[in-house]
Amino acid sequence: MNQLCIRMEGVSKRYPHFSLDGINLELPEGRVLGFIGANGAGKSTTIRILMGLVRQDSGSVRVLGHDMPAEQTAARRHIGFVSEDMRLYGAATLAWHMQFVASMFPRWNQPYADSLLRRFDLKPQQKIKGLSHGQRVKAALLLALARQPRLLILDEPTTGLDPVARREVLDELMSVLLDEGRTIFFSSHNTLEVEQISDHIAFIDRGRLIALEEKEDLLDRWRRVRLLVPPSAALPQLPGVVQVAGSERLPVLTTSQFDPAVVSLCQDRGLTVQAVDPMTLEEIFVANVQSRRELQPA
Amino acid sequence: MNRASINYAVVRHLILKDWYLNRGVILGSIPIGLGALGLVLTGKPVTFILCIILLCMVIVGIGAQLAMVTTINERKEQTLAFVMSLPLSWREYTAAKILANLIIFLIVWLPLTAGALGLLLLPGATHGLLPFAAIMAAEMLLTNTLIVVAGIITESQAWTTAGIFCSSLGINVLGYVFAHVPGIATYMWGPRVHWTPAAWTILAGELLTVALLLAMTFYIQSRKTDFL
What we know:
The complex is a heterodimer. Helices cover 35% and strands 30% of the residues of chain A.
């Protein structure tokens, strides 16, 4: 296994109306983690703790080998961070921002920054207040990428963008990511984006991490099985079933532990397996969250 | 949060950032202040009063504007997340904010204070006013520090506005009180400068309060756990 880029152990943070509860998360170097959660699930709090901007009440956090928040300055020398609620100085130009960030990062790569300017179609002499929202997001990405970070933390960077701008930003981001082997922590509630970009997936809900694994394994494990149950047969106990929808005769099972043997088992019991449908990441996320909320109501 | 020593290069970059973003207002205010001082030379009592008021307004106003823009607006306009994505600690951020506000304020305060004190030394001027003017100039420095500290510690527009209000009121109230302190009032309208123990005590007290406010800010900031 690669060296760990992020390691969170038993991390908790308590606020009056929200708690982050016992987060355990490991991300090896070179991986792209999609961090998915509904609004208010704890994504931004987790990221702020990772950045050293919020101190956890308990648990330990290591980022790029540095204890957080104690060694946040050293860690942030190698972190590029873009968040949905991050703004640049409206009265200053992009060129000024580039110069300012470059002065803080010895690893700033000006030729790379220039190439990103062209790829993102940005004009350095333009003031930030004159840029569209999509251009501002691209400008923030440029400032994060050209410092050549070992870890890129993106907190819902495409939120608020129109579909065209979101597509542009995502396409550019993906093409940039293909060039590099850096570790990325990509937080979003847009599962389609996360599915495109990530190789690892984490789900967070109500302050708890409810899933963390490789994307392909996750997508392989979850299936929707459509059955036809004849009057003479009964629905058998199947492993990993988290939801049963449809009717008694035509049930639709959602399972988190699909195995081809399940199909044989059903057929042996006289059931007809009408279809075994793969699920999108969004469907998996929603099914996962709903089943856990049924088990553990708020 | 970060117990390491301060990286002064980072602090310098942050100060230069605040200077760059506010240089227009600062540089624009100096000619207004100097113009007010120039009008004092006309010698008319009404003009003198109006110009002193204008001078005070420029100095206090610049301090308040700076504190608002560099501390409160940074949070309100969400540029703080950008700054805090950079490799700096909160000690460095706090040091940069205090120094930026004080240094940039001094760019306005120093020439205008020097000009005002210089005018009082001109032949024919009421030289006795000089200690009182110096005390009031230090009072404006203290006022500015109080506003900056309120902005940094509370990160709240409401509390900083309250700080500005209290500071403005404080200047008038303390100005009245100081003007009636026997050690100052006795010589204030005289032809010669008298640096009495009372004047020195007040001046030293003001400067000590500035130092205490700054130390308190570092202490409180070091105990904060959440910054965004």
